[in-house]
Design a protein that fits this description.
Elements (H helix, E strand, L loop, with lengths): L1 H12 L8 H14 L2 H14 L5 H13 L3 H13 L6 H13 L3 H13 L6 H13 L7
Helix pairs in contact: 2-3, 2-4, 4-5, 4-6, 5-6, 6-7, 6-8, 7-8
């Protein structure tokens, strides 16, 4: 992951500078998520704000997944109200990412609550949503818990 951040720095310091866009920042967030660097992901969000780049749905889904891998389920859940405040509506990908974060943290009850909130928000679960939830049911302590 350090190479990705070095490349980002090189990009922004090039002559002439190359301005990062939402795709650039989402790529960096993906690097953070895959390498377990949730604190670095927070830095990326701060850089986005400084650059005047608005977070999008995919970025929120990536952050939720990043927090889930880090065991920071409260932080993952807090992103849904943050999205609403930013005027961004969570879609099935975002809600499924939260359900998966619950699965990663071993909290099947919370995963089902996330599904109910998804449905209450009028977002239709997808086959991926249900597959993630089914996985949560079978992964807790290696036995079926649902």
């Amino acid at each position: 992951w350090p190479q990705a951040f070095e490349l980002f720095l090189e990009m922004t310091q090039a002559d002439p500078p190359c301005s990062p866009d939402p795709i650039t920042f989402n790529a960096l967030l993906g690097v953070c998520q895959r390498s377990g660097q949730w604190e670095q992901a927070l830095d990326v969000l701060a850089w986005m704000e400084q650059a005047g780049v608005q977070a999008n749905v995919q970025m929120y889904a990536t952050m939720i997944t990043c927090f889930g891998h880090a065991g920071r389920l409260d932080d993952a859940e807090a992103l849904l109200p943050a999205m609403r405040r930013a005027g961004i509506q969570a879609n099935a990908v975002v809600h499924t990412a939260l359900i998966n974060a619950c699965r990663l943290c071993g909290d099947v009850d919370r995963a089902f609550r996330a599904l109910r909130r998804m449905e209450e928000a009028g977002v239709v679960p997808t086959v991926v949503t249900y597959n993630v939830l089914l996985g949560a049911c079978t992964e807790i302590n290696g036995t079926s818990c649902c």
